[in-house]
Amino acid sequence: MKRNLFSIALISALAIAFVGCNDDLVKDDIDAKYNRDATISAPVVTDVTDASATVTFTAEFDTTNLAGVYCGVVISTTEDFVDSTKFEVVLAPGEVKSFLVDSDTKYYAKSYIAVGTGVKYSEVVTFQTEKAKEFEDKYLFGSYTAYDDEDTEATYDMEISWIEGTSNRINIINLWNGGETVTASVDFEKKQIIVDVAPKVYDYSQDDKNYTWVYLLNMDSGGEPTEDPIVATYDENGHISFPRYFIAIDDVDGNMYQYGVGKTDMVKNAE
Predict the structure, then answer these.
(1) Residue 239, pLDDT score
(2) Is residue 168 exposed (0-12), middle (13-18) or buried (19+ Cβ within 10 Å)?
């Protein structure tokens, strides 16, 4: 396991803002408290498959003397929006965002604006997801021998497993020999594995309490990290190759540093 911190250089932090909304602000019984003029459209849900969908909406509202406005879409599998599968997609008016769904399921969705102590909702729309498709390249599943940076003498074990209920989602276990499980999507036509952005691969606080996670980022031709996903390629002979990636580490104050760069190759073990 690579546990020696080296060549640490401070770089610009990647800003990924997650804005949470208190559950108390998304209940219909406080709509009457909303004291601002606002016009909000029902959510428009498109590109619905068995695993994902995209959503957007429009709104106009008065923000005079207000510190913040929170917008988004509430999605549920029941019309009353109180079931355990209810969740929120936080986004700005006009922004388009993708989210994960279950296959062959009817969903209810409504847009909202939370301003101050009030919330205003749109009308409710429904959409139906597709039935799950068959996972095509099942030969991806199984155990692998992996090595980093073309060092074929320093090998370690990895595994790929199917995420049940999906047609193209997988778990990648022990990427970078860090003991964690990261998730990814598979493009069967291009023979690509698209890793979810910024996967956490090792808990560095086990070695140094001043740091938190080591994670991997896509790297451009100039060696700088990007917000694009890392894309590996695979073939029917059991070979998987990850391109050069940027290795990042966060300290306890949320600052991101460079840990190094890496490359991982995997060879499937004989069954």
Answers:
(1) 98
(2) buried
